[in-house]
Design a protein that fits this description.
Length: 535
């Protein structure tokens, strides 16, 4: 006898004999039925009738079982027929139903060695011991509970694996950083000051087009930079300020020293090189520290989260993700301090590292922002119902009075990824202060205002300061779903692989990935030696 439970817990298949056509298959479709109830019924039918030819019994119990609330009732509906009569009702002793329908008492189910670990063990034991109906039911229940807990653990791991698959560093990227760090120490040409001394005045010259990119991913940064420069009509007017962290600084500098994008001007700087960052109180660092502390104790810490047996696996995975340092990186929060980081600049375009530029972006400087600070695309209107359905209520907890009293749940959200920031206008506001105020409030309320990411506090801080720009300038969602058509994506000014399926990961959508790999030179010696390939 074999048993298959689909990972979604929605299909149960029992094969009573080896190599024969007898089987029983149930699809759990109804919301009203618990998985466990259906499971018991299937097992009972299979056990008690294993000498009976169980033909492909039931394919779907949707609709038929709406009124069933007990195993007995369900068993009757699921059970096979012989000569047109249902057989299960007469063969199952009442005591079995009683035992199985009692709620599971976790303390009672000691996961000891006496519980059969598999269906095979269980059958063998039942054959040897020929127990009474009650013992049979108790053992069955214990075994099913054990199987269920295992399936559950596997499920949580699966969700977390997907998270890790999207947030961990693939070994090729790690290799690239190491090779470049090595090059930096060996090769003087990889240590050039970026930009060279005679170009430094351009860094603070407002007649240039200034772009800012914060990233610790060298390959991703190289794609953003080369797509930006190659599509620019006036590359000699482009200044790209790349901000990175301490550990990525040398490899990043090595890459752009050896792969200059002249005549565009590239600056590579680590956070600790900024004057503002090194002097005195830096709110973003303090906030990060506190945030990390709160997150590590969030809802009693990770072991308490996992221990809750009644919570759904994907919620547990989401809670564990909330503790991930990925959401707490300074790189993510840094854009809220652009006015301080670039005190001489009036306007910058901030780019995320998971985008590709496909057009000349200088017209962004012609957009009249009507005195607003942040030029962004809206994310609540558009053909793509999945990506374009985001309102404030999608990100903020409107059950909390602090949110409900200050914001409108149906207000359209906007996106980070490609934003025009008018730093002059920004300096006349309290946006950065508001941002930190709300970060504090969220920490004080144990992360109950929002849980993940830097967009929720951004929505709050920039509230009333956003100027909506044409969706052409920023197409989102390429990392969320694979039905984005290549034609649609090709016709957008900037495409954004927000979502899990980043183009540098194995899980990228194959038809969309070429839009990104187009800007990777696979014949480059560093790319080649780290086995980074086009597909
Ligand atoms: C476990 O999760 C359930 C369902 O969300 C919740 O009602 C319950 O309070 C949680 N228990 C603990 C101990 O956190
Ligand atoms: C992509 O698929 C989703 C779900 O199947 C659907 O809701 C959405 O409208 C589709 N988007 C496009 C652009 O076809
Ligand atoms: C910024 O905050 C200060 C102190 O809370 C306040 O006095 C000032 O009016 C605020 N400025 C704006 C533009 O909201
Ligand atoms: C939303 O806020 C309410 C009220 O403070 C709180 O009980 C609830 O747990 C919050 N939801 C989340 C997901 O944090």
């Amino acid at each position: 006898m074999q048993l298959h439970i689909s990972p979604s817990l929605r299909h149960v298949t029992v094969l009573p004999g080896k190599g024969v056509r007898e089987f029983m298959k149930v699809k759990i479709g109804s919301r009203r039925l618990s998985y466990r109830m259906v499971f018991y019924s299937v097992l009972l039918a299979a056990f008690l009738l294993r000498f009976v030819f169980v033909l492909a019994a039931v394919d779907s119990i949707d609709g038929q079982t709406g009124r069933c609330s007990t195993i007995g009732c369900l068993g009757k509906r699921l059970g096979p027929r012989i000569l047109g009569r249902r057989v299960l009702e007469s063969t199952v002793p009442e005591v079995i139903y009683q035992v199985l329908e009692e709620p599971v008492d976790q303390s009672e189910v000691q996961l000891g060695p006496e519980i059969p670990q598999t269906l095979e063990d269980f059958i063998a034991e039942m054959k040897d011991e020929r127990p009474d109906a009650k013992t049979f039911a108790v053992k069955l229940k214990a075994m099913v509970t054990l199987l269920e807990q295992r399936t559950r653990t596997a499920k949580i791991q699966e969700y977390l694996y997907r998270h890790v698959a999207s947030s961990s560093i693939p070994k090729q990227l790690h290799c690239l950083a190491l090779k470049l760090a090595n090059e930096h120490s060996m090769n003087a040409n990889a240590r050039l000051q970026l930009p060279s001394a005679e170009l430094v005045p351009a860094l603070v010259d407002n007649s240039f087009f200034h772009f800012v990119l914060a990233s610790d991913n060298i390959l991703a940064a190289s794609v953003v930079a080369s797509s930006l420069v190659h599509n620019s009509l006036h590359p000699e007017k482009v200044v790209l300020h790349i901000i990175t962290d301490r550990k990525t600084y040398y490899p990043m500098q090595a890459w752009f020293s050896l792969h200059p994008l002249t005549p565009a001007i590239i600056e590579v700087k680590a956070l600790h090189h900024f004057d503002w960052f090194t002097k005195g109180k830096v709110p973003v660092l303090e906030a990060m520290e506190k945030d990390q502390k709160v997150r590590s104790q969030f809802r009693g810490g990770s072991s308490a989260i996992v221990a809750n047996n009644t919570e759904k696996p994907y919620i547990i995975a989401a809670k564990l993700q909330a503790m991930s340092p990925k959401y707490n990186s300074v790189m993510n929060h840094i854009r809220i301090h652009l006015p301080e980081l670039f005190p001489s600049l009036n306007k910058v375009v901030f780019l995320d590292d998971d985008i590709v530029v496909q057009t000349d972006l200088s017209p962004l400087w012609d957009i009249d922002m009507n005195g607003k600070v942040n030029g962004a695309v809206e994310t609540c209107r558009g053909e793509d119902k999945f990506v374009m359905s985001k309102r404030f209520k999608s990100y903020l907890n409107f059950s909390h009075p602090l949110i409900a009293n200050n914001f409108e749940p149906n207000e359209c959200a906007w996106a980070y990824g490609m934003n025009i920031f008018d730093l002059e206008a920004w300096r006349r506001t309290n946006i950065s202060r508001t941002y930190h105020f709300w970060l504090e409030e969220n920490l004080k309320s144990d992360l109950s205002l929002w849980q993940l990411g830097t967009l929720p506090p951004g929505l709050i801080a920039f509230h009333g300061h956003v100027h909506v720009i044409n969706p052409f300038w920023h197409m989102l969602g390429l990392g969320y779903q694979d039905n984005t058509t290549v034609e649609d994506a090709e016709s957008a000014g900037v495409i954004h692989f927000n979502g899990r399926a980043k183009p540098w990961l194995d899980i990228a959508f194959p038809q969309l990935r070429p839009l990104w790999t187009k800007y990777v030179d696979f014949s480059d010696r560093f790319i080649k030696s780290c086995h980074i390939r086009a597909s």
